[in-house]
Design a protein that fits this description.
Layout: H1 2-26, H2 34-47, H3 53-77, H4 80-84, H5 86-93, H6 96-128, H7 134-144, H8 149-170, E1 171-172, E2 175-176, E3 189-191, E4 194-196, H9 204-214, H10 216-240, H11 246-283, H12 297-316, H13 321-345, H14 350-365, H15 369-399, H16 403-431, H17 442-451, H18 458-473, H19 478-486, H20 489-501, H21 508-532
Antiparallel strand pairs: 1-2, 3-4
Helix pairs in contact: 1-3, 1-16, 1-21, 2-3, 2-7, 2-8, 3-15, 3-16, 6-12, 6-13, 6-15, 6-16, 7-15, 8-21, 9-20, 9-21, 10-11, 10-19, 10-20, 11-18, 11-19, 13-14, 13-15, 14-15
Length: 533
């Protein structure tokens, strides 16, 4: 069983990392990959039955799901360097081994830091505070309930049908595809100050799937973003900001949205730090670990190794010791908060907490563009990995798995994912243009706006900030609206259409496995096309 489980962990870690690398740069969404991994593992074991299937599926999921969140964190932040310093990014890309090694090393040291923090607080958050960690509970229920194999078959149906569609569209070997990748439903035209694009359909199966799985969470904000770009930003540029280029005004307006979000983050940041300081003062630092001795000499040695490895990486890129200390301390505080939020509601707000560390570090230590991107990416990876590790530990507690094996599989999954993510990012960014319809990287674009916000027209910034204020009043997520503004209209429309499909089914959950297979198949096809193209 061990060989089969290790092999499954390697295959599905590669799968999760590859799929989420593409999805996190093609869309502003980062869905948890664990439920899809469980269904694939269940389908495999239906075809190849072995003893102790439930435990093996749990170990595979615990190991491989780390790759999904690690890739998501990288996709949201690391491409920021391209938008800030394209020449430096391209110079790294021209050296494949260096490019892969840098991202893999960053992923490993940041992921290890997150895993360490999760290990320290596991007992406190799961046993003492009994946080729900909903994704962990969901996966546990999927493993425990035998009839989930039906959903695995549905996932495979979506996967196979989409693969067949992609084959007919792109062709294979000497056979040319005959399904068009673009279809002009609405010809591009400009009326007065309003411009409408033509519609492309080449990525829509995957976009429909993501839109369906996420539902109304993204439908309304993305629709607002797309309409804002067409009916507000473009006309405002022509009427009042013609002294700026179209892209300059669009970036300035978006920066106003980001700036407002930063200002509104000051209060929760102060509360977070104040609450943490009060807790430490009341309980003492020793209370962070468990009462069962997790804070022992072995853990101390592991902590020293992780910090030393992270320090070596940061020193290679000329971080000062003060900036390293600030990054580790700030990341520690933010990762704890991310774990608590993930434990309560199942969401990990990585970007917001990365900003908490990135902006002060940039201003206090005069970091260059690459260093600033490393800080943001480090926080996102460590926070995401820590949350996913505790989801896995929740599964282990419910199934009563051997804790040492769980730790070993999670370390194994982190190492495999860190290696894979560098390779996949290289092929994706060298084949597709960042900022294009295939790889818009809207999260990274918004991160670049945060870093360069001081460079823009003040009236344009004010317009964006007031618009963000209005969105908050209307209870519409400004950051998802920002994604709708920055993304090509074709991408937004695909996601919106997928979200609208949920209105035509009685129970969305019944169809989620099918659409999960669709997005997995389409994204893998795009990856393969990038690697062989």
């Amino acid at each position: 069983m061990r060989i089969v489980t290790l092999g499954g962990a390697i295959i599905l870690s590669t799968f999760a990392t590859s799929v989420m690398s593409y999805i996190s740069m093609a869309t502003p969404i980062g869905p948890w990959i664990a439920p899809t991994v469980v269904l694939i593992a269940m389908l495999f074991y239906k075809l190849v039955p072995i003893a102790h299937q439930a435990q093996s599926i749990a170990f595979i999921t615990i190991a491989s799901s780390i790759g999904g969140i690690l890739a998501t964190a990288c996709g949201f932040s690391y491409p920021t360097l391209y938008f800030l310093d394209p020449e430096l990014f391209q110079s790294w890309l021209s050296e494949p081994f260096y490019f892969c090694a840098v991202l893999s090393a960053l992923s490993l040291v940041a992921g290890a830091f997150g895993l360490l923090i999760a290990h320290i607080f596991e007992h406190r958050l799961i046993v003492e505070e009994q946080l729900a960690f909903p994704i962990g509970q969901l996966v546990y229920k999927m493993i425990a309930v035998g009839n989930q194999i039906k959903k695995a078959y549905e996932l495979m149906a979506g996967f196979v049908l989409t693969a067949f569609f992609c084959l007919l569209q792109d062709g294979i070997m000497q056979i040319n595809g005959f399904i068009p990748k673009a279809l002009t439903l609405v010809p591009a035209f400009t009326w007065r100050a309003i411009s409408l694009p033509f519609i492309r359909l080449d990525l829509w199966p995957m976009l429909w799937a993501i839109g369906f799985v996420t539902g109304h969470v993204i439908t309304v904000p993305l629709a607002v973003g797309a309409l804002t770009k067409i009916f507000l930003i473009d006309p405002s540029h022509l009427l009042w900001f013609s002294h700026l280029s179209a892209i300059e005004f669009s970036m300035t307006f978006c920066s106003g949205i980001v700036l407002y979000g930063l200002l509104m983050s000051v209060v929760p940041l102060y509360r977070m730090l104040s609450s943490g300081a009060q807790w430490v003062q009341k309980n003492g630092l020793h209370a962070m670990g468990s009462a069962k001795g997790y804070a022992n000499s072995s853990l101390a040695a592991a902590a020293g190794l992780v910090v030393a490895g992270g320090g070596f990486f940061l020193h290679f890129f000329n971080f000062s010791f003060a900036s390293m200390a600030f990054l580790f301390i700030g990341s520690f505080a933010c990762v704890y908060q991310i774990m608590v939020i993930a434990g309560k509601i199942g969401l990990a707000p990585l970007g917001r907490f990365a900003t908490f560390v990135m902006i002060p570090a940039m201003l206090l230590f005069g970091l260059d563009m690459a260093q600033t991107v490393f800080v943001a990416t480090f926080v996102e990876i460590s926070g995401g990995v820590a949350a996913d590790v505790l989801f896995g530990r929740k599964i282990a507690h419910l199934i009563q798995l051997d804790r040492k094996k769980v730790v070993a599989y999670q370390i194994f999954g982190l190492v495999i994912s860190s290696i894979v993510v560098g390779i996949v990012f290289f092929y994706l960014t060298s084949h597709f243009n960042l900022g294009s319809a295939q790889l818009s990287a809207t999260k990274a674009q918004s991160r670049a706006l945060q870093i360069a916000v001081r460079q823009f027209d003040y009236w344009g910034l004010l317009a964006g900030a007031l618009f963000s204020l209005l969105l908050n009043y209307l209870k519409v997520n400004p950051m998802l609206v920002l994604g709708g503004i920055l993304m090509p209209i074709n991408i937004s429309l695909g996601l919106i259409f997928g979200g609208l499909l949920t209105q035509f089914v009685k129970n969305r959950e019944e169809w989620e496995p099918f659409w999960s297979g669709v997005f997995a198949s389409n994204s893998i096809w795009m990856l393969l096309r990038a690697m062989v193209g």
